[in-house]
Each structure stands twice: as structure tokens, then as C-alpha cells.
Write a structure and sequence with these properties.
The complex is a heterodimer of chains A (548) and B (333). With 548 residues, chain A is of the alpha+beta class. In chain A, 33% of the residues lie in helices and 19% in strands. In chain A, the strands form 5 sheets. Chain A has a 7-stranded mixed sheet. In chain A, a hairpin with a 3-residue loop joins strand 8 and strand 9. In chain A, helix 16 crosses helix 18. The radius of gyration of chain A is 25 Å and the shape is globular. The two termini of chain A are 47 Å apart. Chain B is mainly alpha-helical and 333 residues long. Chain B is 74% helix and 0% strand. In chain B, helix 6 runs antiparallel to helix 11, helix 6 packs parallel to helix 14 and helix 11 runs antiparallel to helix 14. The chains are: A alpha+beta (548), B mainly alpha (333). Chains A and B meet through helix 1, helix 5, helix 8, helix 9 and helix 15 of A and helix 3, helix 4, helix 6, helix 8 and helix 9 of B.
Chain lengths: 548, 333
């Protein structure tokens, strides 16, 4: 209530200020949109697709876009993604931990050596106490600094952690619940907020949101919820190579794609996320830069391998994969996608050597369907859940209509159940075996492959069916199950990559899902923007960007 | 001699202050059950609709145990009546709860959004009502003339054009092609009355005011044309009143019907426009509602809907009272 009154009074004061100061300084700034230029600051203004600034306290909301703009900007994790290269998949590198080891006798025991001399934005020191305090804020419910909002958002990443302890000022030990080589990937998304700042603000996370303090390359300067957040360069950032080139980074929530385009063309922003494909020619004609790259994204149907679905027969799954004219689909998307050859992109360390080639071969598809007992008189009847929009869903309606036609041409009769995005996610989470999904053969939920769990291990193992994992359609292959167990317990990166490649080859051969295209993740940049490297990642590093 | 005639059909009886006060008090009291009813209906609809707020915030791999913990943490594990009455009892003491997505108090979120929407809709009310009244009056006074046809054409166009589409077109012309006005957002901390700030209002205000201007213009035209045909207007002319004084009488007699239309439009505008606010990234109540719906942020959604419905209740009350002031024949017992 105290906070509510303060909030109300702040708003009242703001409104009063707006009107009273107005007369005196009226007409002082002719063009607010260009006001920054007058200060001599180099300002990068980014239009995000989210409708609100993601949580600023240390565990960002709004999925990967939140991690991209409110995670790795203000905060650091023990490890981080190297986002400096465009021509290879992003890799994990040391972050706030200089190094780490896994106990060979007890592989649940991880020891992290922390980087020394790192300071939070408020000047306090980052050390083992800060790590312990931050893990408590997420997982120790009776801790005074436990924060439900952050705990909820970060649950995906700390789920594998069992316990933690300080060994000395710069060493911490983290124990996983079971041998889990994927834990390290999740640690890249657990960020560290300043305990000193939290205490200074009277132990209020609400206050902290406005004066957030991390160790990252950008410092929060001004935060207006639902409107903007302004970050300034952290001149004392611990990694000299990543001290931002721009003085200020302004992040603006702009969910409407046309608004983002108009703002870029009108010079109100410099950097736009996800411009719609049909706007690309207009943007190019106006001199804007269109940057694209592969990243761990796949637009697919997660399908049911259960006996009550036509997709329970591997021949039907393969036929569906052969029925799709992926080049045509890419054309439909204005060239902003690449045809899929599996879950991961060709050339990815986990691609392997699948025998089944995801090509366009309607004749072979018809033959396989005939073998499985389907034909023109008896088409395979399937029902797929789709949503008209959603994160990573690209252009779902025209794309699904296109695939429906492709399917019809070979003898697969597809019906859609259209839900809104959040409802679709609920049905995806429930799995094909859930009563609400009875009679549904697939769900069009675009997927990611940034870590082994989400890409392969929790999608392909038979024991990872919902609610524990992502194996929506109860795909089952005993050999794959064994490989998944092996991968989880293999801590050598290269060895693990080989096992993952083997798993991938097998799930492609069995056509576990129907994979269509990988998004090329376009971004539109003003001609003034220089030095941006679009990494093959859902995250991007804005520290290298300059404004000319 | 003018005065009794001048009062015409509206001058039947003086307004009884005490009666009016009682009426206003009663209406204010009525608004309480209306608010409770609205909140109850909204609460039930939100819970009947597919989608779960916990699904929206839970991680992809959330275990049933984690989902149950989150449900308990946000109070969604309780029965619906308990959830509703707990929410209602908190609202009564001014605590609208905390947004699930942002962790910020709903009241603070709402207060910011309401101020932003009032600033925008205030401009749209001014522009829309002035243009609507002007065009409608001209059309009503010149019924059948080319001026009437032009004004009516504008009004029909105003009603027919989708405001978000108009917003986009205005942005393309004035922001993208001409670089005269900003394409989105509010002023960035510039003084309120400075051009640097006001220029952000121009396009959304125009987009938002076109529909009310059209509706009001059509209503004014119809009402004014109707009143002008009435016998008392001929009598006024016959009595030798100046055209201006006749005009005043015509408008005064048209006022009650127009107030009802304008009140409704005012309510719609004050409620914010999801589409226009989204097109212009204007952080008002419409934008807030849009976000709350898509993220299933129930506390935020319930709070926003309750406040917006209260706008309508209050505006209806004000309109009813104003109608009675203009026309005491309207029985308020």
C-alpha cells in the first residue's frame, strides 16, 4: 500500500509538473525524437517486439527477447555466449566464472572459480557471497531476498540445481540433482543482481527494478515501464573488449511490426527487431540495412507418434516430410528462411549424417502413404493445432495454408484447430496423451536448439514426455534413449557433440517431427548503424555497435 | 415577452436542487452494485476463457510440482469464489494486487496508463467533438444543400474508416514520407505544452477523433434538422427573434439527445483504444489491456477492466445529470 501511494503520488507530481513547467520552457526542444543528438551522445535506439520492458531485476521476462535486451546487457552469468562471430554457431565461454571443473568421482559436483576484481554498477564487489545470495533469491523461499517474479522467470534455468555453497571468496560449488552436462548451458541465463543495491533500497525488488545494478556492460539510467528503458555505457566493464561503443542504449517496446518499420523510416529508432517480410523491399529501397543469419530456430510440427494417430506409422511421418515444397515455402517468406534438413541446421555440430533426406518428393510420399494403407480414396486424416501468431511462429497462417495444400496433393487431409498463442503453449505443454489433445496429431510450435536439452535430449527420449520434458508425441526409440542418457553424463564437449549428432541422425531417419524451415531472423538497421555482428544465436551483443 | 416563449418546451419547471442531489446520490450508490457485477462477470469470463496465467509465465519444461507451486504462489490454487472475494476485498481498500508479469502493483500500472490515455483522449475529445458539432450543425442547418452533402459525406467516411488503418496511413504520409511528425511514442520528457511534446499527439489524436467526429456530426445533423422543423422554432421566427437567438434555442433543445451520444463517445475514448494505442506504441489503457490479455495477466486485466467500466458508469451519471439540467422534463425519479 505504501508503494501504491508513492506510485500514485509520483504520477500526480509528474502530471502536475508536466503542466506547470510547460509554459516556462515551451518550445525549448523542437524535435524530441532527435534530442539526443544535441547532447553529443552516441545513442542506439532499438525497437523491440515485446509490449513491455522485460523484468529488469535480473531474471528477465518475455523469453529470449528478455534475455537479449534485459539479461546480457545489464547482467552477466557465470558463463556467457560468445556472440562475436556470424559464421559459426555461438559457443559458451567463461563469464563471471573464469573456469570450472566437474568432479570425476561425483559428476553432480561443479566447482566454479570466480573472476576477481569484478564490480557491480553500484561499486560493490562480485564474489562468492553474491553468487550464493543470488541463488537464494531464486530458490530459497524463506530468504528475505527471495523474489517470486524472478524465481518464476528463471525456473527453466535453475531446475537442475540441487544445492550450492561458498568454498572461499572466489570459489563456489554447485551440485546438480543428477549428472547433467547441460547444466552449464542453463547457467548462461542465470544473472547476478547486486545484493548491496538491494539492501541500499530497503530490500525492495520494486525499487530495485528502477535502479537495477548488475555487472554487465550497460547500466540502467532511466526506466519508464511500458514505454522505455535507457541504459548507459559501463566504462569500467571487466571485459575491456566488450565496453560498449555507444554511450546510450534506448530500448523501446513496440509490438506492432508496422509501427517498428514506420519508426525506423521516420528516424525515431535505429535498430528494428523482426521486420515483416513484405516490408523488406521498401526498407532496402530506403537505404536501410537488412541483416539476417541462421540461428537455432526450427519451424515445425511436433507430431504424435502414438498408435491412435496416422503419424504413429513412420512411413506417414516420412511421407509428410517429403510432401512439403520447402523451396516454395522459402519463396513465400521472401527468402527469409532456409529449408530444413532436420531439427538443427546443416553444418551444425549436432547435425550428424542422417540417411533420410528431407527433400520435396511427392511421388515417394504417395508411395509411402500407399504402403501405410492410405490413398486417394482413403486420405490420412490429421488435425493440427496452430496459432495465428506467437514467438518464433513467423507467418503461421499463410505457411500453414501452404502446407495444407502440399499435404492434400499427396493424400494427407489436414484440419486445423486454431488457438491463441498462450492456449497453444498450454496444449503443447500437456502433450499428445492429455485428454484435451485427444484426436490431435500435431502442434505447430516453432522450436529452438540452443542447448542439447531443448534441441534433442528432452524432445527425443521416451521418458521425457510431458510434463517433464518436451516429447509431445511420445516418440520412442530405445537406442535414442540410451544415447540421451550417455549424452547427459558426457562432460567433454566434443564427445558430447558426437553423441548428439548420432541422436539427431536417428530422429531424422525416423522423421520424429515434420521440420519445415529455419528462420533467418531479419533485423533492419538504419544506415548509421555500424559494427553489428548478427551471431547465430537467439541472443545478440550490442556492445560492438556504433552510430556514425 | 420573450422570456416565457424563449424558455419554449424546455422551460417547464425549475430544477429542484434537493431532488437532483438525491438523484445523484442514489445513482452513485447504484454504481457500487454495477461495479461489483461488472467485476464478477469479467472475473468469470476470464476464468472460462482458455489459457492459464501460470502457463504464460511458467518455463517450457515446468514440472507438475513447479506448476502447482506457482499456482499456490499466485493464489490460483484456491476456489474461484475465494479468489474473487479475496480480490474484491483488497480492491475495496485500494489494493488492486500485483501484476503477474511485471511484479509491479496494478494500481501504479493503471494510474500511469490512465494518465497517458486521458491525455490522448482529451485531445481526441476536443478535436472530435468540435468538428462533429460544427459539421453536424452546418449540415442540420443547411439540410439538402451541397454543404450538407459534403458534411454528411465526411461524417460517413469518418464512421467507416477503421481508425488503426487511418493511423497507419497518417504515419506513412506525415512521419515516413514527410518527416514532419513522429511515428510513435509519447514525448521524451519534453515540457508538456512544448511542440516537442505536442507533436507526438497530432497523429494519434486525429486517428482517434475521426470516428467520434463522424458519429457526432451525424447525430447533430439529424437532431438539429428535426428540432428546426418543430413549431416552436417557427413561432420564435414569427416573434421576431434574431437568427442567432433562434439558433441558441435550437441547440438547447437538441442538447439532451446529443449529450447521450457524446457521453457514449467520451466513454469509448476515455477507455483508450487498443488498436490506435498499439499502432502508435502509446502506453495507455488500451495498450495495457492488450498486453494483459495476451499474457493472461489476470490481476492486471481485472483491475483495468474494472477501472474502464467505472469510466462508463461515471460518464453515464454525468451525462444523465447534464441532460436533466438542460431539460427538466426528463424525469429523474
Amino acid at each position: 500500500m505504501r508503494r501504491n501511494r508513492e506510485e500514485a503520488s509520483r504520477i500526480h507530481r509528474r502530471a502536475l509538473l508536466k503542466s506547470s513547467v510547460a509554459g516556462a520552457v515551451a518550445f525549448a526542444l523542437p524535435f524530441a525524437g532527435k534530442a539526443f543528438a544535441q547532447t553529443g551522445e552516441k545513442v542506439l535506439r532499438v525497437a523491440m517486439t515485446v509490449s513491455d520492458v522485460p523484468l529488469t531485476t535480473g531474471a528477465p521476462s518475455q523469453g529470449t527477447e528478455g534475455l537479449r535486451f534485459m539479461g546480457i546487457t545489464v547482467y552477466d552469468g557465470l558463463v556467457r555466449w560468445d556472440l562475436s562471430k556470424a559464421d559459426e554457431a555461438a559457443k559458451l565461454v567463461p563469464g563471471l566464472a573464469e573456469s570450472w571443473t566437474v568432479d570425476e568421482q561425483d559428476t553432480t559436483r561443479w566447482t566454479f572459480r570466480l573472476r576477481q576484481g569484478v564490480k557491480f554498477h553500484d561499486g560493490s564487489e562480485f564474489n562468492a557471497d553474491a553468487v550464493v545470495w543470488n541463488l537464494e533469491k531464486l530458490m530459497k523461499k524463506d530468504a528475505p531476498h527471495f523474489d517470486q517474479a524472478q524465481s518464476t522467470q528463471a525456473a527453466q534455468y535453475y531446475g537442475g540445481i540441487d544445492s550450492w555453497s561458498k568454498v572461499d571468496d572466489y570459489t563456489v560449488e554447485i551440485r546438480s540433482k543428477r549428472p547433467d552436462s547441460v547444466l552449464i548451458y542453463n547457467l548462461a541465463n542465470l544473472f547476478f543482481s547486486s545484493p548491496a543495491r538491494w539492501k541500499e533500497l530497503g530490500g525492495s525488488w520494486e525499487e530495485f527494478a528502477f535502479k537495477a545494478s548488475g555487472t554487465g556492460p550497460w547500466i540502467v539510467d532511466k526506466f519508464v515501464p511500458r514505454e522505455r528503458i535507457e541504459l548507459v555505457r559501463n566504462k569500467n566493464y571487466w571485459d575491456p573488449g566488450r565496453i560498449p561503443k555507444c554511450d546510450r542504449l534506448v530500448l523501446l517496446p513496440m509490438p506492432d511490426p508496422n509501427t517498428r518499420i514506420a519508426a525506423l523510416l521516420a528516424g525515431q529508432v535505429d535498430f528494428v527487431e523482426a521486420p515483416p517480410p513484405d516490408a523488406i523491399p521498401r526498407l532496402r529501397a530506403s537505404g536501410m540495412q537488412i541483416v539476417t543469419n541462421q540461428y537455432p530456430h526450427i519451424w515445425c510440427y511436433e507430431i504424435s507418434a502414438r498408435e491412435d494417430s496416422p503419424f504413429g506409422d513412420v512411413r506417414v511421418r516420412q511421407a509428410a516430410n517429403l510432401a512439403i515444397d520447402r523451396d516454395g515455402l522459402v519463396k513465400l517468406l521472401g527468402g527469409l528462411a532456409v529449408p530444413a534438413k532436420g531439427m538443427v541446421t546443416e553444418g551444425h555440430p549436432w547435425f550428424g549424417k542422417p540417411n533420410f533426406d528431407l527433400r520435396y518428393d511427392p511421388e515417394e510420399a504417395k508411395r509411402l502413404l500407399a504402403e501405410a494403407g492410405y490413398g486417394p480414396e482413403k486420405p490420412a486424416q490429421i488435425k493440427v493445432i496452430i496459432a495465428p501468431s506467437g514467438s518464433g511462429q513467423m507467418q503461421p497462417i499463410p505457411m500453414n495454408e501452404y502446407i495444407k495444400e502440399n499435404f492434400a496433393a499427396v493424400g494427407i487431409d489436414m484440419e486445423f484447430e486454431v488457438l491463441d498463442w498462450e492456449s497453444l503453449r498450454g496444449r503443447r505443454r500437456a502433450g499428445a496423451a492429455a485428454p484435451e489433445n485427444e484426436g490431435r496429431d500435431g502442434v505447430n510450435n516453432s522450436w529452438a536448439f540452443w542447448d542439447p536439452d531443448i534441441a534433442l535430449l528432452k524432445t527425443a527420449a521416451s521418458y521425457e514426455a510431458p510434463p517433464t520434458g518436451y516429447n509431445w508425441g511420445n516418440f520412442s526409440n530405445p537406442e535414442v534413449d540410451e544415447l540421451v542418457k550417455k549424452a547427459k553424463e558426457t562432460f567433454d564437449q566434443q564427445e558430447q557433440d558426437k553423441i548428439l549428432a548420432d541422436i539427431h541422425s536417428r530422429i531424422v531417419d525416423e522423421a520424429m517431427w515434420i521440420w519445415m524451415v529455419h528462420d533467418l531472423n531479419p533485423r533492419a538497421l538504419s544506415p548509421k548503424v555500424e559494427g553489428f555482428v548478427q551471431a547465430q544465436s537467439w541472443l545478440q551483443d550490442l556492445t560492438s555497435v556504433e552510430i556514425s | 415577452m420573450h422570456a416565457p416563449v424563449g424558455r419554449g418546451p424546455t422551460g417547464l419547471a425549475p430544477i429542484n436542487g434537493a431532488r437532483m442531489f438525491n438523484y445523484a446520490l442514489r445513482r452513485i450508490l447504484y454504481s457500487v452494485p454495477i461495479a461489483v457485477g461488472v467485476s464478477l462477470v469479467c472475473f468469470l469470463l476470464l476464468h472460462i476463457a482458455p489459457g492459464d496465467p501460470i502457463d504464460a509465465i511458467a518455463p517450457e519444461s515446468a514440472s507438475p510440482q513447479l506448476l502447482a507451486e506457482l499456482r499456490a504462489a499466485y493464489g490460483f490454487d484456491r476456489s474461484l469464489p475465494v479468489q474473487y472475494f479475496s480480490w474484491l476485498s483488497n480492491v475495496i481498500v485500494g489494493d488492486f494486487g500485483t501484476s503477474i508479469m511485471t511484479g509491479r502493483p496494478v494500481l501504479g500500472e493503471l494510474a500511469n496508463a490512465v494518465v497517458n490515455t486521458l491525455l490522448l483522449s482529451g485531445g481526441a475529445v476536443l478535436v472530435g467533438f468540435v468538428f462533429g458539432l460544427l459539421l453536424g450543425t452546418i449540415a442540420g442547418y443547411t439540410a439538402g444543400s451541397p454543404a450538407d452533402r459534403a458534411a454528411t459525406a465526411f461524417a460517413v467516411a469518418g464512421i467507416s474508416v477503421p481508425n488503426y488503418w487511418l493511423g497507419l496511413v497518417l504515419v506513412v504520409i506525415f512521419a515516413v514520407n514527410q518527416d514532419w511528425l513522429p511515428a510513435m511514442g509519447m514525448g521524451q520528457g519534453a515540457p508538456f505544452l512544448s511542440w516537442a511534446n505536442l507533436r507526438h499527439f497530432v497523429l494519434p489524436v486525429i486517428a482517434l477523433s475521426v470516428i467520434p467526429a463522424g458519429i457526432i456530426a451525424r447525430s447533430v445533423r439529424g437532431t438539429v434538422a428535426e428540432v428546426r422543423k418543430q413549431e416552436f422554432v417557427q413561432t420564435l421566427h414569427a416573434k421576431g427573434l434574431s437568427p442567432f437567438r433562434v439558433f441558441i434555442h435550437v441547440m438547447k433543445n437538441s442538447a439532451p439527445a446529443l449529450l447521450a451520444v457524446m457521453g457514449l463517445q467520451l466513454g469509448y475514448l476515455m477507455g483508450g483504444s487498443i488498436l490506435v494505442e498499439t499502432v502508435f506504441s502509446w502506453p495507455g489503457t488500451g495498450f495495457l489491456l492488450n498486453t494483459a490479455i495476451f499474457t493472461r495477466d489476470l490481476p492486471l486485466l481485472q483491475g483495468t477492466i474494472l477501472i474502464l467500466s467505472m469510466f462508463f458508469v461515471v460518464i453515464n451519471l454525468v451525462v444523465d445529470l447534464a441532460q436533466a439540467l438542460f431539460d427538466p422534463r426528463i424525469e429523474r425519479n
